[in-house]
Design a protein that fits this description.
The chain has about 70 residues and is mainly α. The chain has one domain. It has 1 helix and 2 strands. A two-stranded antiparallel ribbon has the order 1-2. It is rod-shaped, with a radius of gyration of 20 Å.
């Protein structure tokens, strides 16, 4: 059943609104993580360059809090 209907199939806008609010917060947090990664990768590459190295492969990061991997 969709989030906008109750178990009997009747419209339940309260549940739908609550679900959308939870998803909005999750999307906001994910966007913050992606923004942080977008800032972090160039710093990591510059650090390697300053140390006389070059990044030649993908950099994979794992969020310690969520366990999600970013490639």
């Amino acid at each position: 059943m969709g989030m906008e209907k109750n178990s009997e199939g009747y419209p339940d806008p309260t549940a739908g609104t609550a679900w959308n609010n939870m998803r909005r917060e999750e999307r906001r947090q994910e966007n913050e993580r992606l923004s942080m990664i977008s800032s972090l990768i160039p710093v990591m590459k510059q650090t390697a360059e300053l140390a006389g190295f070059e990044v030649v492969g993908r950099i994979t990061l794992k969020d310690k809090a969520t366990g999600k991997e970013y490639r």
